[in-house]
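[agent] plan:
  1. take the single chain provided in the ticket
  2. run structure prediction with default settings
  3. attach structure tokens to the ticket
  4. add a short note for the reviewer (M.T.)
[agent] executing step 1
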Amino acid sequence: MDRLIRINATVFGLVQGVGFRYYTRQKAISLGLSGYVTNNIDGSVSVEAEGPYDGILGFLKWLHEGPPTARVDQMNYREIEPVNQTGFDIKR
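[agent] step 2 finished; step 3 output follows
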């Protein structure tokens, strides 16, 4: 069984006003991840996601590209302590 990990990521580029949070939630759910996505005041998007290692790897790869409506210029992430969250939320 994969170990449970959690990441905190910040995505920069054209990522607000293009459905990025919606698509991020859909992708996370499809990979069996929990967490949340939220817009930041500087125009970036923050994501915390938790799940099996393989799911997180696939999610990070997807975050580098984003949905077809977005343009990702940069994505930074770090591993943080899992919190056993359930569900994946879009925060305002």
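[agent] step 4 note for reviewer: The helical segments are 20-30, 53-65.
[agent] ticket updated
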